[in-house]
Amino acid sequence: MGEGNYLNPHIDNSHDKDRGQWRVFNLLYYVSPDWKLENGGNLEIWPNGMDHEQTTITSKFNRLAVMATHNHSWHSVSPIKVDKTRCCVSNYYFSPSPLRTDDTFHVTSFRGRPEQTFADLLLRADSVLRMGIRKLFPKGAYKVKHVYEKPKDQ
Questions:
Q1: Residue 142 per-residue DSSP state
Q2: CA nearest 138: which of 13, 1, 19, 3?
Q3: Domains in the chain, ordered, with CATH?
């Protein structure tokens, strides 16, 4: 991510592409040397929901953040304020069962930041529309070709 880049608050989609495994953890490994809080591009988690203050985790070099993923694990990346590149290696981990008993299937869903009232309304509507499409096409409307396929003998 470069200067001006950010990610609005969102929850990651709940499953793998075939909807056979639940996404349960996201590991974020930060690899940009000398990264500082004031540079922006930091992980923000919203543990009490979007109506409450977020917790900021600096994208500090050699830091590993382990984040649970479920229906309430809202997170974002703050805008990058410097002319530098913030790099992060991200890995998702899956399980046959959800992390929480109240988890339900969902697509990646974005929200506006607290000051983005109109964008928040549009992003909520987008999520509702995409969930509706997933009800019609449970595994997607078309086959994605760039997905890693684990060899059948493993």
A1: S
A2: 19
A3: 7-103 (2.60.120.620)
Closest CA to 109 of 125, 98, 87, 95: 125
- Give the residue from 1, 109, 90, 91 showing the smallest Cα distance to 50: 109
* Position 19 confidence tier, pLDDT thresholds 50, 70, 90: confident
Which of 131, 132, 133, 152 shows the shortest CA–CA distance to 142?
A: 133
Residue 98 CB neighbour total at 10 angstroms? 19
**Which residues fall within 8 angstroms of residue 57, CB to CB, at 6 or more apart?**
42, 43, 44, 45, 63, 65
Hunting for tokens 């974020």 — which residue is that? 28
Q: How confident is the model at residue 58 (pLDDT cuts 50, 70, 90)?
A: very high
CA distances from 54 to 21, 90, 93, 113, 134 (A): 29, 21, 24, 10, 30
CA dihedral 141, 145, 146, 152 (to 10 degrees): 110
Q: What is the pTM of this model?
A: 0.87
Share of the chain above pLDDT 70, in %: 97
